[in-house]
DNA sequence: TAAATGAGAGAGAACGTTCTCTCTTTTTTG
DNA sequence: CAAAAAAGAGAGAACGTTCTCTCTCATTTA
């Protein structure tokens, strides 16, 4: 029960008077209403995320989420049909953000740098508060929460499987390319290397080293060493 | 609601009729009564573990645990004062088992072998069912559950901190010794290596590779590569 | 027979969810 | 364009269920 609610709907009235009465079904998709709905969903998701970080998926109650969002249960349930739905949505976006970091991999010159940077990006992202100023709690907690939930919740498991499948594919493609370029030892089992690197990276992300005083720069050689160890690159790459 | 319960108390009656009435206060500690109490506690803990693996700490209800243990709530609460207490006990023993694996580290000839074996032992242990025959679910789930709980439950966090502190000390001692023996590069930051190896190992344990079809032997070179990468041993050790 | 043990009903709180009602905004109608 | 109608959004009480834990009373054990 903080300073919630704002002037409620009034906030969206004075947006801009230029766009009015689309009156056809397009309004449903792009109109003022639709935009407001999106904003509200966002509000709920942000609040839920904070609650889940604080108390866990099962531990956080709908009332807790309602309070954090400054909303009544009746209002909240207009946007999400169940707690499950919120959990799924949050799991999905969280895992998707992870997957998106991988997309930037191709920006690096060689495969070892690429992996190192992806790892560092992950740790950086996870130890930051999610948008908005002020130091809030790390989102690495959510990472653990999602993984725990995925072990017994079938739909969350499916979500994780989806994004991790994409990540594995992307990594595998990059590794294959590097192999053909002669950057890494042709003997290396790429499938295993992908799975191992994913697991190993997850371990480091979960520990949230930056929150424990280990600076990000200190992790650079760690990721590099892991990549070198698992991929066995040709000498020229191994020695930095 | 499987084939639980057994003949309940009857199980402990016909143990052996030889030892009866020690009658002094020592009986409280070592007598038939005390042994029975221990057995009951064990029964509860085993049941609770199964439930927690199946539904999570928060997800499993006391009724579920009672059913699994073949016990009434009244009986169960005679042995544990709260659900919290059961969670703490299970977290503690689970983490302790992890720490105990480390104790066997000194049996290896060199530091790389030692770490590799510790890693493999962990994975083996975690992917096995806990005592008793029949394939039950992996205890790697419990690992994730404990870690998730430790992020918001202070007493579980303290338990984890305790055992992980011991593990870190033990690892650090082994690394220092290896450094002095000239087995590893004197430049290596041992503190960071310990923390990284712990995190990385945890990641692999959580993924539970054996349950996904990756045989244990395939992980041997992975652990070896991680150890080599992070510790930078002298040449003779690096090439197996 | 006194103490320990267990079964099971159930108390009381908290849970996720739904219901009813009010108020505002948008669309339709005359 | 004004009035009427419909739809959307929100509040908050209330619902039925489930939760953890306790209490009473019967049974077993020494």
From TrEMBL, chains A, B:
<protein>
    <submittedName>
        <fullName>TetR family transcriptional regulator</fullName>
    </submittedName>
</protein>
<dbReference type="InterPro" id="IPR009057">
    <property type="entry name" value="Homeodomain-like_sf"/>
</dbReference>
<dbReference type="InterPro" id="IPR039538">
    <property type="entry name" value="BetI_C"/>
</dbReference>
<dbReference type="InterPro" id="IPR050109">
    <property type="entry name" value="HTH-type_TetR-like_transc_reg"/>
</dbReference>
<dbReference type="InterPro" id="IPR036271">
    <property type="entry name" value="Tet_transcr_reg_TetR-rel_C_sf"/>
</dbReference>
<dbReference type="Pfam" id="PF13977">
    <property type="entry name" value="TetR_C_6"/>
</dbReference>
<keyword id="KW-0238">DNA-binding</keyword>
<keyword id="KW-0805">Transcription regulation</keyword>
<dbReference type="GO" id="GO:0000976">
    <property type="term" value="F:transcription cis-regulatory region binding"/>
</dbReference>
<keyword id="KW-0678">Repressor</keyword>
<dbReference type="InterPro" id="IPR001647">
    <property type="entry name" value="HTH_TetR"/>
</dbReference>
<dbReference type="GO" id="GO:0003700">
    <property type="term" value="F:DNA-binding transcription factor activity"/>
</dbReference>
<dbReference type="Pfam" id="PF00440">
    <property type="entry name" value="TetR_N"/>
</dbReference>
<keyword id="KW-0804">Transcription</keyword>
<feature type="DNA-binding region" description="H-T-H motif">
    <location>
        <begin position="61"/>
        <end position="80"/>
    </location>
</feature>
<feature type="domain" description="HTH tetR-type">
    <location>
        <begin position="38"/>
        <end position="98"/>
    </location>
</feature>
